Amino acid sequence: MEAVNAEIQGSAIVSVQGLPICSVLARDVNDGIVSAMSAAILSVSERAVEELARGDLKRILIEGDEGIIILSKAGENAILCTLCKAEAALGMVFLNIDSVSQKISTLLD
Amino acid sequence: MEAVNAEIQGSAIVSVQGLPICSVLARDVNDGIVSAMSAAILSVSERAVEELARGDLKRILIEGDEGIIILSKAGENAILCTLCKAEAALGMVFLNIDSVSQKISTLLD
Fold first, then answer.
1. Which of A6, B17, B59, B94 is the most buried (most CB within 10 A)?
2. CB–CB of B16/B10 below 8 Å?
3. Widest CA span of chain A, in angstroms?
4. CA–CA gap between residue A49 and residue A57 (Å, rounded)
């Protein structure tokens, strides 16, 4: 059982094609829109790190002044979209993401 | 005069429409591609922080295992794309970005 991290406020598992697989998000959020945007940002970012010789893409942080969106690959077929507080301890959040991503990869790859 | 930050490896100023304004990048990098991708990622990210109630967009970090791309607005009309090392002291880099962004905004807004 994972330890709960109170700084993580929501998350979504999205296919690389941009379709929702499952999510825990606020009720008024459209998970179809979130999924399509996550896949679009990840896909362009993969191309950007290649063009700018930054190695393999690890993750994308989209920082708003009221919170952060973290996008990362979870295996070959899925993208994990994680929402956390603006002041979150990111090291711990990244560990949680890595652990969950491995489980998603085991299930979906 | 700005202090030089050796952890910053390149940068580009891009219009919000995705066209290059000026850049200091490696010779084999296509700044037209970088500009288009920067504007696309920034535009979708602005929509994502809105949909996911993260406040106003501050910046985007695209982390590769060999370096980081940082995208941020520089005034109303320009996007600043900054490349730094993977292990860079980001606090200092963000201060440099804020300072340069204000100058770009003064020139272009």
1. B59
2. no
3. 40
4. 6
ipTM: 0.95
Choose among A35, A30, A60, A22: nearest CA to B69.
Answer: A60
CB A23 within 8 A of CB A31: yes
Cα–Cα nearest to A51, from B93, B69, B104, B52: B69
Closest CA to B22 of B7, A49, B32, B58: B32
Q: B91 CB near a chain A CB, below 8 Å?
A: no
- Which residues in chain B land under pLDDT 70? 1-3
Asked if A97 and A83 count as a contact pair (C-beta separation under 8 A), the reply is no
- Cα atoms in the 13 Å half-sphere on the side-chain side of B98: 7
Provide CB contacts within 8 A for A69, sequence distance 6+: A61, A62, A81, A82, A83, B45, B48, B49, B52, B54
| Chain-centroid distance, C-alpha A77 | 13
How far is A21 from B5, CA to CA, in rounded Å? 43
Residues of chain B with Cβ-Cβ distance to A83 below 8 Å are 52, 54
What is the Cα A31 distance to its own chain's centre?
Answer: 13
| Mutation site for B-interface testing, chosen from A54, A58, A65 by largest number of B Cβ within 10 Å | A54
pLDDT digits (tens, 9 = 90+) for A21-55: 999 999 999 999 999 999 999 999 999 999 999 99
Q: Please report, rounded to a whole number, the percentage of residues in chain A having pLDDT higher than 90.
A: 94
Flag whether pLDDT at A57 surpasses 90: yes
Query: A49 with A56: CB under 8 angstroms?
Result: yes
